Amino acid sequence: MIFSVWLSAAKPWDEVLDLGRHAEATGWDGLWVADHFMRNGDGRNDDPMHEAFALLAGLAAVVPRVRLGPLVAGNTYRHPAVLMKAATTIDHISGGRMVLGMGAGWQVNEHEAYGIALGGVRERLEWFEQACRILTGLRDDDRTTVPGRYGVVDAPLQPKPVGPMPLLIGASGQKVMARIVATYAQEWNTWSTPAQWREKRRGYDRALDEAGRDPATLHTSTQALVFPGADGAAKAEKVLAGGAGRAAIGGTGAQLVDTVGQWAEAGLDELIIPDFTLGPPERARDALDQLMAEVVPHFRT
Any idea where the Luciferase-like domain is (predicted)? Predict the structure, then answer.
């Protein structure tokens, strides 16, 4: 299993960079950032939020070794061919470490505030599958034509990525999204606890089987809010009981080893730790160091 860090795009750039550099220097395998323009929620929202691909370009230039990607880019925000040009440029800056994380889009308030069409669920799924065809076509083929919403005709992508630039799809849907993942993605990501991950995985295993695809060809990753410490398990349970939709885990090093072990036994490939609950910069660095010392070595492959 590999272990990565999700850096909050709401923090100042110097804090994002400092924690990213610290994670790379202390052995973490990847850095991820969310692709949102504002926090989710009702009412006036003036909280800071950096743009994901600009952050990734900055990290790519100055943080070596680790994988980088958006978790995940909202398909509704950008034309996929334009997005692919940006992602490929970041891949070149990073020397081939970019992972293109994509999702169908969902956050209502930012679409309303910025005048971006969200569409209904069926529309978003149709747009998303077209986008996946465009993204993989541009990456893999000399020219790409995909009729429909985006109107891509005989489109080139030069230069090509220097690395594999896998397409990661963030999804939980057990039917249409599972089929799209099985058809186009090299990686699949979802929020989960170990029990939730086992349940969600069923639809994706079924879709892979229907596509005639070996499950070992799909890299799997998940994330949950993490609360280290003796009272961490109780904090995580409180989050889960609140029903906000985010998975959470917590506890002492031994408790977290047990929890992560359940994911490992179920075949998870990558665990992503958001920095959201780890506190201010110095405390966040200490928390990552504690996890690296007490939890990660039990699962290194």
Answer: 5-270
